[in-house]
Design a protein that fits this description.
Chain lengths: 101, 556
């Protein structure tokens, strides 16, 4: 990843983080004040305090460096070529012919 | 005897009987397990969670289990109560978890095992404000690489070392300075323990650069937490071995320590050097070590790559060099494994020469997809042809080994349905590492919408039933390889007996684990000019010194 891409990733990540922190969560949005709330009697509000605001679960910041994640083995470890032995035999001056006997 | 004494003795006998019955039942009744995974609606990683789930499901196949897999998004209320243990694989950052699962995971007394992401959706949710008080720990943060790698600082550090039973198990990391790609899975979920009477750090993970240590596995009551997905970049020295071993504890199956070793001679075909097989058979016999012989019964060179451009076939006969080599091996403790029918496919270069032993037989490796004819029936017929070809020479295998360790999903299914020995029609044992796919006809193009994943997996112990229904004997150490670029420029990789020894040392963390490896007899050929026989003896002796007991794979 070159410097420009790194910068782009960082900016995008910070933007996403800012958006996640700044934007209201679903429960906050649901509690947006209504017009009639302005007419609530102050004394009544003192008698019946608002329940504590429901805390939106904001995800923790994601690690900034993106990586390539591969599930499973990073190498199968099984790609041998059996006929290398034929090449070796020929290279040593022996026959590389295959026979049943 | 007084009346009360008689009743007391009767009650004691009854209690003892019930206790014994309960113990027996615990061994014979399948443990029901639910594996939940993340499945976003779309995107390049939509099926990644399923890939991890398959890998966990395979490990659970080591025990007598009944495993159900489903996306957490399809979870319905109350399901955790139908299982002894529920695993949640949090592979996708902040994918919303259904409230029903959050509520059930918090409320149940059944075992919950949570991996990596999204624990904050439960531990930080106001409806479950008692999480910390209940389990003694809470989620704190996500951590990844300490900084972006650069050419001058290619490994900036991360939580890379899991210490388990005193063994340091290091996570894979490769930085490609040319492309900037970081091939690694460094991110972990960090939890904080508040009450050590309720929560215990069972396994730590450390940042080898900074020295920081955080929990890798923590358990609070019935709730287990793993800091990462232990199925990425797995290897024989990797923290993958931790989940392999700890599943004994999670499932609550008391398993005594018993560690065994297996060895297999590989790719024995018409190309075999009879003298090499004699030397190896004599040596293993002298050590009282039973050994497998992975046999390719039908030699085929359709393009005449080693026959002047003329197609060549060498069939199995009772008197040929292959049969003579096999007979001598059998007389000295060898057990036949069927390693393909031809170990190549059709008249293709798939990918090398089209010659037996070089190419893939049940997977189109050139295009990384299934073969044009890819039905269970067709693959069963091909495997059966291999069984029949062996019988032409008078031989019967006890297990199947996929050529180059890769087949299609339908071929794996076929392998679980073809008995190697007609006298044992219910024996479908295989001996392998395997590749698992997230669909039956996978589209593995990285740019494909809803792309599939293919995951290679090895096992440190016997898997009684995997995702495709196979019974698998393990091969977990690899094989000795030499750089012979003077013979073939692409055969340029060294994997030493010391590498296998280190793998075997790490495999000891698995209480009922194996040290299982394979060896190519062609390394003894004088034209190759490598210390193959000497190195084989070194690894055999090293495995014995580690305390493993050699086993006859055909009796497992």
């Amino acid at each position: 990843m070159n410097q420009r891409n790194l910068l782009a990733v960082a900016i995008l990540s910070l933007s996403a983080l800012h958006a996640a922190v700044a934007a209201p969560g679903p429960s906050q949005a649901a509690r947006a004040p209504k017009v009639e709330d302005a007419h609530v009697d102050a004394a009544a509000a003192l008698r019946r305090p608002e329940p504590p605001p429901v805390r939106a679960v904001v995800a923790p910041p994601r690690p900034l460096v993106e990586t390539v994640v591969q599930p499973g083995l990073h190498k199968i470890e099984k790609h041998e070529r059996l006929t290398d032995v034929l090449k070796a035999r020929k290279r040593a001056g022996r026959s590389d012919r295959v026979t049943a006997d | 005897m007084t009346h009360s004494n008689w009743i007391r003795r009767l009650l004691c006998a009854l209690a003892l009987t019930l206790g014994l019955c309960a113990g027996a039942q615990a061994q014979t009744t399948p443990i029901r397990a639910l594996v939940l995974y993340d499945q976003p609606d779309s995107g390049p990683y939509a099926k990644l969670g399923m890939a991890y789930a398959i890998m966990l499901r395979n490990l659970l196949g080591h025990w007598n289990t009944t495993v159900d897999m489903k996306s957490v998004q399809s979870y319905t209320a109350g399901q955790v109560e139908q299982y002894s243990v529920t695993f949640y694989l949090g592979s996708y950052y902040d994918l919303p978890i259904p409230p029903a699962f959050l509520a059930d995971a918090y409320g149940t007394t059944r075992k919950i095992v949570w991996f990596k992401n999204n624990l904050w959706q439960l531990a930080w949710h106001p409806s479950y404000a008692g999480f910390t008080a209940k389990y003694g720990f809470t989620f704190a943060s996500l951590r990844g690489l300490d900084a972006s790698p650069t050419a001058t600082n290619p490994k900036p550090g991360f939580f890379d070392t899991v210490t388990y039973k005193t063994r340091p198990l290091t996570k894979y990391y490769v930085y490609d300075a040319a492309t900037g790609a970081v091939n690694a899975d460094p991110d972990v979920g960090v939890v904080q323990i508040f009450d050590t009477a309720k929560a215990q750090q069972l396994v730590p993970i450390s940042n080898s650069r900074t020295g920081e240590v955080v929990p890798y596995v923590v358990k609070g009551g019935n709730f287990w937490y793993f800091a990462d997905l232990p199925f990425s970049y797995i290897g024989p020295r990797d923290r993958y071995l931790v989940i392999c071993d700890m599943l004994h504890d999670i499932l609550g199956v008391d398993t005594p320590t018993r560690q065994r070793a297996l060895v297999r001679l590989e790719d024995v075909s018409a190309l075999v050097n009879q003298n090499s097989m004699t030397v190896l058979s004599n040596y293993l016999k002298s050590k009282s070590i039973p050994f497998g012989v992975a046999t390719i019964p039908y030699y085929y060179d359709p393009l005449g790559a080693y026959n002047g451009g003329v197609s060549q076939t060498v069939r199995m006969t009772p008197t040929g060099v292959l049969a003579r080599s096999l007979n001598y091996a059998i007389q000295n403790g060898g057990r036949i494994v069927l390693h393909g029918y031809t170990h190549q496919y059709s008249n293709w270069k798939n990918p090398h020469t089209g010659v037996s032993g070089d190419d893939y037989e049940f997977w189109d490796i050139v295009n990384n997809r299934v073969l044009p004819i890819d039905t269970v029936a067709a693959h069963k017929a091909r495997i059966q042809a291999g069984v029949d070809e062996l019988r032409r020479g008078g031989f019967t295998a006890f297990a199947w080994e996929p050529p180059h360790y890769q087949m299609s999903p339908n071929a794996y299914t076929a392998a679980s349905q073809v008995p190697m020995n007609p006298l044992k029609p219910t024996n479908f044992t295989t001996w392998q590492r395997a590749v698992y796919y997230t669909s039956t006809t996978p589209n593995l193009s990285p740019t494909a919408a809803n792309r599939d994943f293919a995951v290679g997996q090895f096992f440190p112990y016997i898997i009684q039933r995997d995702h495709y229904g196979q019974r698998i004997l393990p091969e977990n150490l690899g094989n000795i390889e030499y750089d012979i670029r003077e013979v073939d420029p692409s055969s340029n990789f060294n994997y030493t007996w010391q590498d296998l020894k280190l793998n075997a040392e790490n495999a000891k963390v698995v209480r009922d684990g194996f040290a299982s490896f394979f060896f190519h007899p062609f390394w003894l050929e004088p034209e190759i000019n490598k210390p193959g026989f000497q190195d084989l003896q070194s690894i055999i002796n090293a495995i014995e010194a580690l305390g493993y007991q050699w086993a006859d794979a055909s009796t497992l």
